[in-house]
Amino acid sequence: MGVMTETGSAKNKVDAADPRDSAWRETKGITPADGTFPRLLDGERPPRAPTEMQAGWRNPIAQARPAKLRVLFVTADDPLYVIQFFEIFFDIYSRGEIEICGITIGRAFHEPLRKTLRRMLGFYGPWRTFRQGLRFLSSKLRAQSIESIAASAGIPIVATQSVNQPDYLEKVRAIAPDVIVSVAAPEIFKADLLGLPPLGCINIHSGRLPAYRGMMPTFWQMLRGERVVTITVHYMAEKLDTGDVLATQSFALRPSDSLDRVIRETKREGARLVLRVLRDLRDGKADPQALTMDESEYFSFPKREDVRAFRRRGQRLL
Question: What local confidence, expressed as pLDDT, does residue 295 receive?
Fold first, then answer.
């Protein structure tokens, strides 16, 4: 299906520049938090699971399991909500089971800051945007960011302008993750990236699939009067939010709730769910379930009339 499309010449470029060499890694934008990389013996490659050809986007589980699961995270620079996921995950995961071999942090929505500000003004209105701006500024003054907590945990930052650029794919090959985890990643992964890790790319989505595909699933579930928000971890595919489901978890909503509370708490619960899925992948216990697309809907970013309808239901944004 065109998943493994890498050419021999690109592979030779990676082999010629030894990815174990820290100077080479630094030139490629792979920055370790403590300035060092583990030293490997001559001829030794970074550990990873045995590769198998992916069957479509439903990645078969390799028979032999790595002693440690090598995980690369791709996420967005969000010090208010997405950071909640990483504060929990970095605190609870076992270094004996999982090695976080890098984290890539992109701009929220993968767009200029001024465009994001216009988006927020349309969604929150001036007063709530001001309040969110104060919270954002406070986090910056306290140096509270995903990057800072990753550095404190000794996790390398893997920089890029786009996760689909050839130079980023080269970095990923050098890092050799067993699995890539998207946590609010601001870009759609294309086929070349999806096909790199032997255990696939997985995503956490705060909505029941395929009924709540797309953006802001928490908002849309609350607007439609759902009693719970469904947190879903699934394999990633080229078509957004259509990959096989690995696990789900329900999060109860209150009669009059705030979007702010629900997003924060589901990020924290999602960290625990992703950890459970990663352990299942490592142990060969994952049981992916294919989606039936009969009830599929796709949602875009809410408009002002959607926000007004949300508030008429007695729900709050903040």
Answer: 83
Asked whether 185 and 162 are in contact (CB, 8 A), the reply is no
Paired residues of 315 in beta bridges: none
Number of domains in the chain: 1
Hey, how many other C-beta atoms are within 10 angstroms of the C-beta on 165?
13
Helix axes 166-175, 8-16, angle to 10 degrees: 60
Give bridge partners of residue 105 from the DSSP assignment: 75
Count CB-CB contacts under 10 A for residue 303: 11
Instruction: Give a yes or no: residue 202 inside a domain.
Output: yes
Q: Which CATH number do you get for residue 237?
A: 3.40.50.170
Q: What pLDDT was estimated at residue 30?
A: 52
**Whole-number Å distance between alpha carbons of 122 and 300:** 14
Range of the domain at 262: 68-312
Torsions phi, psi of 85, nearest 5?
-60, -50
Tokens read off for 318? 């903040």
Q: Higher confidence at residue 64 or residue 301?
A: 301
Residue 71 carries which side chain, given as an amino acid letter? V
User: By the 8 A CB rule, do 241 and 234 touch?
Assistant: yes
**Distance between CA atoms of residues 113 and 111, nearest Å:** 7
Alpha-carbon Rg for the chain, nearest whole angstrom, is 20
Percentages helix, strand, coil for the chain, rounded to the nearest 5? 40, 20, 45
**CB distance 196 to 158 below 8 Å:** no
- Which tens digit of pLDDT belongs to each residue from 107-139? 887 778 888 889 999 999 999 999 999 998 999
Residues forming beta bridges with residue 181, ordered by sequence position: 73, 202
Tell me whether residue 21 is in a domain: no
Q: C-alpha angle 202/271/154, rounded to 5°?
A: 90
Q: Is residue 157 part of a domain?
A: yes
Residue 193 lies in a domain: yes
Distance between CA atoms of 196 and 203, rounded to whole angstroms?
A: 15
